[in-house]
Amino acid sequence: MDSVPRLTSVFTLLFSGLWHLGLTATNYNCDDPLASLLSPMAFSSSSDLTGTHSPAQLNRRVGTGGWSPADSNAQQWLQMDLGNRVEITAVATQGRYGSSDWVTSYSLMFSDTGRNWKQYKQEDSIWTFAGNMNADSVMHHKLLHSVRARFVRFVPLEWNPSGKIGMRVEVYGCSYNDSKLRLSSSPPSATLGSLLDDQHWHSVLIERVGKQVNFTVDKHTQHFRTKGEADALDIDYELSFGGIPVPGKPGTFLKKNFHGCIENLYYNGVNIIDLAKRRKHQIYTVGNVTFSCSEPQIVPITFVNSSSSYLLLPGTPQIDGVSVSFQFRTWNKDGLLLSTELSEGSGTLLLSLEGGTLRLVIQKVTERAAEILTGGNLHDGLWHSVSITARRNRITLTLDNKAAFPTQDTSRVQIYSGNSYYFGGCPDNLTDSQCLNPIKAFQGCMRLIFIDNQPKDLISVQQGSLGNFSDLHIDLCSIKDRCLPNYCEHGGSCSQSWTTFYCNCSDTGYTGATCHNSIYEQSCEVYRHQGNTAGFFYIDSDGSGPLAPLQVYCNITEDKIWTSVQHNNTELTHVRGTDPENPYTMTLDYGSSMEQLEAVIDGSEHCEQEVAYHCRKSRLLNTPDGTPFTWWIGRSNERHPYWGGVPPGVQQCDCGLDESCLDIQHFCNCDADKDEWTNDTGFLSFKDHLPVTQIVITDTNRSNSEAAWRIGPLRCYGDRHFWNAVSFYTEASYLHFPTFHAEFSADISFFFKTTALSGVFLENLGIKDFIRLEISSPSEITFAIDVGNGPVELVVQSPSLLNDNQWHYVRAERNLKETSLQVDSLPRMTKETSEEGHFRLQLNSQLFVGGTSSRQKGFLGCIRSLHLNGQKLDLEERAKVTSGVRPGCPGHCSSYGSICHNGGQCVEKHSGYFCDCTNSPYEGPFCKKEVSAVFESGTSVTYMFQEPYPVTKNISLSSSAIYADAAPSKENIAFSFVTAQAPSLLLYINSSSQDFLAVLLCKNGSLQVRYQLSKGEIHVFTIDVENFANRRMHRLKINREGRELTIQMDQQLRLSYNFSPEVEFRAIRSLTLGKVTENLGLDTEVAKANAMGFIGCLSSVQYNHIAPLKAALRHATIAPVTIQGTLTESSCGSIVNSDVNAVTTVHSSSDPFGKTDEKEPLTNAVRSDSAIIGGVIAVVIFIIFSIIGIMTRFLYQHKQSHRTNQMKEKEYPENLDSSFRNDIDLQNTVSECKREYFI
């Protein structure tokens, strides 16, 4: 070993490039909390409610919970001393904890000396800051201009009128160096190491090659690159170790000189210590430097157990006063540091760590306790020194050389030392008077313990000759920094206790014990599979991998799922005045990294970007062999001189390929160089060149020369991995892949389906370690893993069989915190990972999928969408060259067919499935989107039953044809409606033999279903539970199966009826929605309802397997449907949700819910002309006589019908379901409609 110099100066190494001088410290990250670490003595105020100064740090809950003045008025202020002049960039406030006291506005003042204050101004006026609305929320303000000061004063201006002034405050900033020179930007730096003050040697290695720097501390390495343009390091002519000999040099750290030992100090192979020992002229020393390491040997102890560790040391009893001091370090916020029973009835002394704050309490039975609170964040793992002195009625608690005193009057307190001092905890066999521990025991390290100013020999404790102890490590501090390295992934912040670490994943986009799992799906295809429709989504293409989530627009249609990534310039952009020497260049920003975009593109089946070049005397590509005038840059920063619609390597436009350009001599329309506007537009679709990152235009500088360009968003469809599946059909078959490297975190997810009893999904072996996933029985999935501490096995048992030939989902994960297994939506099984022992998963064999290396227990069935740590394995490609395994796996609809709703049919594709909505009245990717339209007065949609016809394109005739039954034995009718018009005719079906079915609204708003079947008898069913012309959405379902009829209204069964055996609906001729325009000899009541037809909105109309409204709106040219009047597609739901009062009340063709206001006076209706009055009277008399005649005839016909059908009416109630007999009124009287059955 080389000689060891003992230094009392800072050991400093700084690498930087060429940095310019002149800017201020605001270029640094300057947002550290400054007040949270202050002692209570740093706070002062104009007055205090308690009579003494109250600490008022943000989020403080102990003591008074903040500051409140004795009187709440405009002369009050709260002040803090930050100890040194600092740069202040932000402030924050809260109200006083657990009170109704808070400040609603305040101003700030600053000072360097505590005198000569300066008010904070913004926009050249004294600034008022908005305060709080309650006692707990934090109001944070970033200062527009940072302020340099030592003292900060908060001046309340307004406060809660129902309470008093109350504040807890924080100041944010950083240390300020008042040197006149500053670096213009922060040199690249790295921070490594923790707990380096443990009296052990630590190694440091810095290596640089060009701009690449490797920084290693104790085997932990961090890599970074230097800034600047040059690779050479232009450093000072001298290197300083242990300190900076010349104050004020650029890069000088605001740190004390290094105090300790350094050995084996080399710079580029030169032994610096050897040169110093030999007093070479290149070396000079400043201060106390010796060539030996004689650091004092300090004996630390470790309190291991939070429930049973303690140290008992004796003291000298009955001394007037107490004196105890020691140092401690810990990661725990809470723990007992010291407890002792004082002599002469002085009470009990208790020193504890509570929430990271030091709390001293001296409690007598009959008197008020003396309490001191000081410090904060004392669970930071650093050494902190504590000293307690109590003499002559004065109690002092000193923390890190800062003294604190009780807030209470202690003039009457007499304290005498005890004879037993318990550090860290209490033995189980003691009473509270002997050792009191209101919280858990201390876990951490202590050293340098002094009692009554005498050091305690901890080696003697270890030897049993002094005191007593339990669960201690003596002569060892076993503190461990569990956050170095930081195992919280994806930017998760790490915190720790003595035994474990915790990850805060807030705002990372990831979740889990180590922030490993993305909260977003990997593609739009997955969102669609979950039942989502179009919208903006975040996708994480590599799942738990390093790439961040990316916001995209998922356009989920019936046949494709498009993923669109927008950039910053999708509008048409005009360009003038450019030439090859002065080109126009525009760079496109997609708001993401190129790696993210490449992952989206590579994971898609097809990608494209539309490019459009509009030109007038502006050439585009010139000739196939010439220098192009315009080009674009792709993903690899390569220049591409081809345009949309053309494959790579062909310097042409789309029109050049099919020889349709304006000038046949050119290969682009714009290359014809015409003095008129034209364009070349097409799609770029070669994935390896996408996305477009830049466009360059050089030919718009001539007379009348002008161009305009537009590049659309990146659009992709087809997920290459979600449906990537293989079928294993022999037990000896498997797929093999490279070794799965996942030392600290491993996640495996996939889908499977099988009929086998058992089989191994996946296996990877190491020398001792292994990982295995298998179906161990028809209802069990087992995940087994061994990282060197013995196998850990998780089993999920399913209440139903998993070998049911349906797709099931499995996800297994192992990290440093836990091992877990999830199957479908069953409860997740977890086991905590041991904090001790081996933790690296080290595998070295190939990864076997679908089998094992022994070719036993192979899996029979299908595996799909296999992901390992976010990486997607291409199973199908590997299966193409593997025997016993086939690419693909049919049968998706058996598992996912239920995602197609409302009669939609699941149709298999090679990669997945889609919903065929041909025979559904709905549409959309899941047949859930309503197809609806607004009917006006006179609007009619008539569907004629005739020869079969295809209703959609690209669907085979057999699957899409619609046939008319000659004599259908059933009707399955369903539709929704919204209207304010009554009477109305909603639906009418007639046959060639004058049978009909009509659905109408009577004048009173009741709904009526009228059947005429077989022998001419009319059956009328009326539902009058409410007025259905009430501008609300109603859903009607009519189902007749042979003799049985049921009617549902708004999801409730309203009627069940059995027709006579001979009832039959003969051949149907047409179905009409709205007004019947043909002369069909309508029934009288139907004719009344038909007078206005239907005014309102109809939605999702279905008759058996026919969707007449959908046919009219989507397939009017090929379907046997006739539309008369105005039919406007619209959403009935949106009409219902619109403001009813906003709908005009004057009936017109533009208002589907229009109605005349009977109270509105008739304009110009007053006439004095007697001839006009007489004419009106004559007309009224004529109408009255006509009505009387019609009623007489109607009553006579009804009487005859009553005689004929009297026996049938007596039998009719017996045909009804018993549950509805009491709900149906079988009256023989007639109101406004013919003989009816009321519900």
From TrEMBL:
One of its GO terms (cellular component) is membrane. It is a single-pass type I membrane protein. The chain crosses the membrane at residues 1171-1196. The keyword DNA damage does not apply. Disulfide bonds join C862-C889. The keyword Translocase does not apply. Residues 81-293, 300-477, 724-889, 933-1132 form the Laminin G domain. Residues 479-516, 890-928 form the EGF-like domain. It is found in: Membrane. Pfam families: EGF (PF00008), F5_F8_type_C (PF00754), Laminin_G_2 (PF02210). Residues 515-567 form the Fibrinogen C-terminal domain. Residues 30-174 form the F5/8 type C domain. Residues 1-24 form the signal peptide. InterPro entries: ConA-like_dom_sf, EGF, FA58C, Fibrinogen-like_C, Fibrinogen_a/b/g_C_dom, Galactose-bd-like_sf, Laminin_G, Neurexin-related_CASP. Keywords: Disulfide bond, EGF-like domain, Membrane, Repeat, Signal, Transmembrane, Transmembrane helix. Belongs to the neurexin family. May play a role in the correct development and proper functioning of the peripheral and central nervous system and be involved in cell adhesion and intercellular communication. PANTHER family: CONTACTIN-ASSOCIATED PROTEIN-LIKE 5 (PTHR15036:SF46), PIKACHURIN-LIKE PROTEIN (PTHR15036). This is Contactin associated protein family member 5. It comes from Equus caballus (Horse).
